[in-house]
């Protein structure tokens, strides 16, 4: 097993800077997701760690040893990619055995490792089949089993579940988490799906425009986003951002007052939609509701607060009519305050 140190990695494609100095340490056995929108640089970073792409500058160390300059096969890692390339002309057994054969493992070791990996991924019944006789989900499991069969210290995965339908994704997500925890594999997982990252990760690195904007546990990045980008990217609905005037270090919302980390001017309130409580109008912030959607598990309200777009969530037992104005009280412990100029959040009050 191994830890991974990514040390100030920069990457340019011609004049375009895809990575602008990325540093991140992944602990031994940890599962870290690189989460960010399309084009932010996640795949490029993963490919640099894998050795499939060279960096312009910076270092990557796996288990204390710099791997810059080493071939992918000499880096002690395994990879699973989106298109889960399983070989169509090989049985599932030989697909899973592939990495071991490359390492010239003897037959006894191949058999032992294939059976172990197949057991973890529940593909023992298919070992004699060819991939074209498998479903997408089963093929995906073969690809993961092949990666795990070599007992890699490090596993790199790039959107490995994106070709699966929603239910299968959920199933595989749970399975992956269990399997990797059991194996103690250090994993870096690239995704643009925040639900996937929240569910799987020990920590999430939120990537934006070639930089890591925040690293933290799923709960930390959700509750205390470092920036407006992070708050807006994570959460469904995303965090609301409401600009409010500050007077003498205080913000007033109806009958509620909050001490804020600014003396005057404006401040941005970062408000998670499910942290409000319904109240008579004028008690906190009033919301003009354009559309109220009963979602089964909750009621989703879309409209505006102080003339600014907002989405909040109330319990499913509430009823609200389209066009109605509802009062909402805020929980002072659940608020984020951000600078309107920089979009950076102020540290959470102790
Ligand atoms: N070989 C290349 N030549 C030129 N530009 C590239 C090359 N590879 C990637 N880029 C650019 O670098 C940026 C980052 O690409 P990357 O594939 O890392 O993004 P990503 O975050 O993984 O996005 P996605 O989720 O869409 O794969 C993009 O703007 C992309 O167009």
Automatic annotation (TrEMBL):
Which Pfam families has this protein been placed in? ABC_tran, TOBE_2
Localization recorded for this chain is: Cell inner membrane
Q: Name one GO molecular function term.
A: ATP hydrolysis activity
Chief subcellular site? Answer: membrane
As for membrane topology, the entry says: Peripheral membrane protein
Return the InterPro entries for the record.
AAA+_ATPase (IPR003593), ABC_transporter-like_ATP-bd (IPR003439), ABC_transporter-like_CS (IPR017871), ABC_transpr_MalK/UgpC-like (IPR047641), Mo/tungstate-bd_C_term_dom (IPR008995), NA-bd_OB-fold (IPR012340), P-loop_NTPase (IPR027417), Transp-assoc_OB_typ2 (IPR013611)
What domain of life is recorded for the organism? Answer: Bacteria
Classification via PROSITE patterns: ABC_TRANSPORTER_1, ABC_TRANSPORTER_2
Q: Can you tell me which family this protein belongs to?
A: Belongs to the ABC transporter superfamily.
Protein name according to UniProt: Multiple sugar transport system ATP-binding protein
Originating organism: Rhizobium wenxiniae
